[in-house]
């Protein structure tokens, strides 16, 4: 299961996604500029959400929280996947 509930401001564009995808194939489609690539970047950890969370298979893959970034040598909190190390 993939659960995405995120917000990200990109210039004048506000990406506000709330979706759950079950097993099988999931497709994102829409007009140019609707945020498809931005969602993929968020899920892949290549972009940081302003708020929200992404859960993959029941494990939190991305959680955005306010506060200072991590200590030197640690992955940022928004890029952490439980049970995985860099």
Description:
The chain has one helix spanning 36-44; strands spanning 2-10, 13-21, 51-56, 59-63. The protein has 86 residues and is mostly beta strands. The protein has a 4-stranded antiparallel sheet with strand order 2-1-3-4, covered by helices on one side. Strand 1 and strand 2 form a beta hairpin. The relative contact order is 0.23. Residues 65-75 have low confidence and may be disordered.
Keywords:
single chain; 86 residues; mainly beta; four-stranded antiparallel sheet; 1 helix; 4 strands; globular
**How would you classify the helix and strand content by structural class?**
mainly beta
SSE string, helix = H, strand = E?
Answer: EEHEE
Q: Reading side by side through the largest sheet, how are the strands ordered? A: 2-1-3-4
Percent of residues in helical segments? 10-25%
By DSSP, the count of extended strands is 4
Distance between the termini: 24 Å
- Radius of gyration, CA atoms, in whole angstroms: 13 Å
Counting DSSP H or I runs of 4 or more residues, the number of helices is 1
Strand content: 25-35%
Largest sheet: 4 strands, antiparallel
Q: From the structure provided, what is the oligomeric state, counting identical versus distinct chains?
A: single chain
**Poorly predicted parts:** 65-75
**For the residues shown, what is the average pLDDT?**
76
Query: What overall form do the CA principal axes indicate?
Result: globular
């Amino acid at each position: 299961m993939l659960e995405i509930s995120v917000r990200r401001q990109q210039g004048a564009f506000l990406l506000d996604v709330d979706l759950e995808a079950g097993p099988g194939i999931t497709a994102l489609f829409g007009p140019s500029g609707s945020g498809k690539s931005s969602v993929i970047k968020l899920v892949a950890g290549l972009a940081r959400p302003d708020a929200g969370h992404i859960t993959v298979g029941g494990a939190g893959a991305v959680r955005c929280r306010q506060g200072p970034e991590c200590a030197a040598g640690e992955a940022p909190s928004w890029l952490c996947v439980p049970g995985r190390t860099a």
